[in-house]
Amino acid sequence: MKKINSFYICILAFSCALAFSSFVRNSQEKGQFVLPYKQAGLTEQQAAAHLISRFTYGAKSGDIDNVLKTGLEKWLAQQLEGNLEDTDLDSKLSNFDAINLTNTQVENLYPRNAQLVRFAIKDGAIHKDSVNKANGKEYRSAIASYMKEKGYRPQQDLYRQFINQKILRAAYTNNQLKELMTDFWFNHFNVSLSKNQCAAYIPAYERDVIRPNVFGRFETLVLSTAKSPAMLMYLDNFSSSGNNVSMEEPGSEMVMGTMQPAKTRNKKAQIAMQKVQANKQKKGKQGLNENYAREVMELHTLGVDGGYTQSDVTQAARILTGWTIAPMGDNGYGAPMKKLMERVGDNNLSKRGFVHEGDFLFVPNRHDNAAKTVLGKKFPAGGGYEEGVELLKMLAHHNSAAKFISKKIAVRFVSDNPPQSLIDKMAKTFLSTDGDIKKVLITMATAPEFWSTDALREKTKSPFELAISSVRALDAKINQPYQLYAWINKMGQQMYYYQAPTGFPDKGQYWINTGSLLSRMNFGLALASQRIPGITFNLAAMNNNHEPESAEAALNIYSKLFMPERKLEATIARLKPMLNDPNLESNVAKAAEQSTPTMQMNTMANEDANIMDDGAEKIKKGKKAIANGTPGQKAGTNTMLSQVVGVIIGSPEFQRK
Amino acid sequence: MTSRRGFIKAGGLALFGIGLGGIPSFLADAVAGTTTPGLFKKKKIMVCIFQRGAMDGLMAVTPFTDQYLKAARPGLFMTAAQGGKNKPLIDLDGKFGLHPSMSAFEPMFREKRMAIVHGIGSPNNTRSHFDAQDYMESGTPFNKGTASGWLNRAVGLLGHDAATPLQAVSLTSSLPRSFYGDNSAVAIKNLADFNIQLKGNQAGANMASKSFEDLYDQTSSGLLKNTGKESFDAVKMLQKTDTKNYKPENNAVYPATALGNALKQIAQLIKMDVGMEVAFAESGGWDTHFNQGTETGIFARNVNDLSNSIMAFWTDMGRYQDEVTVMTMTEFGRTVAQNGTGGTDHGRASCNFILGNGVSGGMVHGLVNPLAKENLEDGRDLAVTTDFRAVFSEVADKHLGIHNDKVLFPDWVGKQIGVMRGV
């Protein structure tokens, strides 16, 4: 009886769910938007594959069915909300203790190398004469124990955690489009770990400035990047200052962006006055820095042909003088200033025209408050912080920005040379919705150009996308994300280290060159043969634990699994003769024999042991320990199947999306 | 953009035929022998070495008669006077002394193959490593948004189609800022890695290589197809020699350092005649805030590596010396005065070295005024008297025949200073 009851309850719940989901589907489809793939001659399956290829980091097995089940429009609508639960990812990310730190916490925990040496000297942990001297070992151990004592960590640890979490997010998040857009906007508003001074602020930049705003209004991104320590430092605006004619009070002069070393700290008024004088001199010398003002127009909003002049750049730079970084961190240069600001209090500061929001600080006495004109718009004399906001809003809503941003999004999601008609539609939406990014994306996805056969598979995966799409296709466990990073780097994308403010060029020609292409092929081979440490998967499980009966069968089955809804006849036909070579099996076997003894343990015979239950994983780890490959390489498998899958991942077809 | 696709058209390559290892014997002979007919018409090669971290030019090439310098650097100043307890500077011209750990350079200087430019630097007075390197490598000292690097633009200005995918090679793990841009440029850390690899499974690698070559030959994407072909052609070119067991010529001994290794591989590429015209390498450790030392210590070790690596390369080049010019560069110099920790801080001008048979060598070019405070930039640093672009453009012009300074260094208006001899 009990059983029957629960059976009915199940049925009931099931039909309710069905009714509900169809209700949602209808309202989504009717209420929001329709994707015109049928008009382009695509089947629903093909359309789902295209959606996945453009709006995720690559298809996982079952993804197409899921999209079909959810409904294409609803799936995209969910992706555009970007708030699907992510329990699995969250639990993986909980292993990283540095990724949620504030900039201040980062400053306190991860001193820069030069800073660390100075602290260590000051605290007597090392003698200044010992730096760079012959006995490096002793010196290093003194530094290490000093760091331990103080609880300091090496900065590399911060960047490693940051990169690791990025890889895990891309591979595992259910909110794939949000992560793609995070990548897109980060690259658009590029900052670089290669610039030491801004590097430590970059994890918080992506987390707090970029990711929450990826589907919002464009002006939010412009304003919040402008005020972020990472950008202020990367493009030097933190140091840009001008003459302020009305601000001559010594009290406020003390809180200037020019940070004094700790040793000059002194509360006495006389010395404070001297400092003011010194700062004034310094200020005069430092003066105006146009870097940010130029790039916010050229690269962030209007585009290089956006219709601004050098005079616009200079005047915009003057408007943005005084926009700087609030002192943070309890040690080092900012510390005395921070204490002083705390003593004065935010209320008193804001009475004097300061604006202190989190890590951002507007310093009125560094602000050029004469009249300016940018793009024909007049900014009258006497302005402060708000004129910068006004300027940035004007830029963010400019016609040129609408075109420039629309084109860049279309290049990212449609093709390297998107049709002008598409850009025009998107730009129109951009202007009519005050730069609503979500609406612009919908306009793009509902345009026929998005679904045209010219656009299918037209984009080349970046190295990062190739790596992530591979692990997604393999449904791999990523225990050591940094191993993937090393490969991504090798394939030509040193993530977060692109030096120029342009960000990585988003075009196939940039990614595909002689060296990087070989690395892509080698990546496929290394990954598929389980030679990349910390990346594990079970090829057999992908095919319901059936071992393909021949190489040809393997090729057929796995290329369809990896590239659903693609026309693969040519690829398969091309490879067939080689795979049908009667000597192939014996060649593979011979290859396995030639391998080093430690490697033989992982050959076909014991691939079963690789099947990913935890027990087997442990056994494998034991073997890994004796496999002594060079860093980043371990003894792998030399099976027919891994060879075939390696070739699939390295194939030209899999480089496209 | 003139395309590197020209490589495919380069008739010579067809001789390689399909399949790995099928290298015509005449080529192997050419490489091993003393004649260098090669597939590619012999081209001039410019080798650039970026010293990251900012080299103290005043210690590398010291104006040793300058009493202000002596006073500002009580613990770092070195003398050219013989007979002291320490090794003296190598007196170049009665005014400048070469650091004794760079003695390898002395014969080149005396033979007038090496020139030094002192007081070289950027008109932008930033003292940030990042910014200064960025400006020097983009070649636009006041514009961060320049997408391309100057060496990439140089490749575009060579005036002929790229006949090879290896026209511009950086011996670094990722592309340096100097190489950013639309022209073909590639970063290769290790030549031996430039192949299809499957560690411990050579047979598997060979099979995969064949599969890939077929697949890329077949694909409908022009970009992937052409680049795929280039890649496999390049692999075959590099397989002509055993890169792992390379034997330098003329008893050259490369230091076992990153720079030594990079230059050794550049030498291999040159001898393999792969059509390389621009090469790039890096040297690190120049940011000597602490205890930089004098005739021994970290600075001495650095310049020792720099000079020995370059001289090993030059010696190894032997019969190729006429084709090669080597130029060093660094983002800025260091303070005239030593700091409180036995080192020097970020300054302005530094010096650089140019080596080649077309160099106007044997002299220290540029201008170094007495280092009295009033002559210093911001009262503390050796003033920049020569814009780096004047020197870079001259070397590119005279050695590689690149005349278009408007493209190479937009915004720069200036004159060459005569570091190269007229052709």
Describe the protein in words.
The complex is a heterodimer of chains A (657) and B (423). Chain A has 36 helices and 7 strands. Chain A is mostly helical and 657 residues long. Among the domains of chain A are: 87 residues, no CATH class; 162 residues, no CATH class; 193 residues, no CATH class. Chain A has a 3-stranded antiparallel β-sheet. In chain A, a hairpin with a 2-residue loop joins strand 2 and strand 3. About 14% of the residues of chain A have low confidence. Chain B is α/β, with parallel strands linked by helices and 423 residues long. Chain B has a single domain, classed as Alkaline Phosphatase, subunit A, CATH 3.40.720. Helix content of chain B is 31%, strand content 13%. Chain B contains 13 helices and 12 strands. In chain B, the strands form 2 sheets. In chain B, strands 1, 5, 6, 7, 8, 9, 10, 11 and 12 form a 9-stranded mixed β-sheet that branches. A 3-stranded antiparallel β-sheet of chain B has the order 2-4-3. In chain B, strand 3 and strand 4 form a beta hairpin. Chain B is globular, with a radius of gyration of 22 Å. The N terminus of chain B is likely disordered. Chain B: This is DUF1501 domain-containing protein. Chain B: Pfam families: DUF1501. Chain A: Keywords: Signal. Chain A: It comes from Pedobacter polaris.
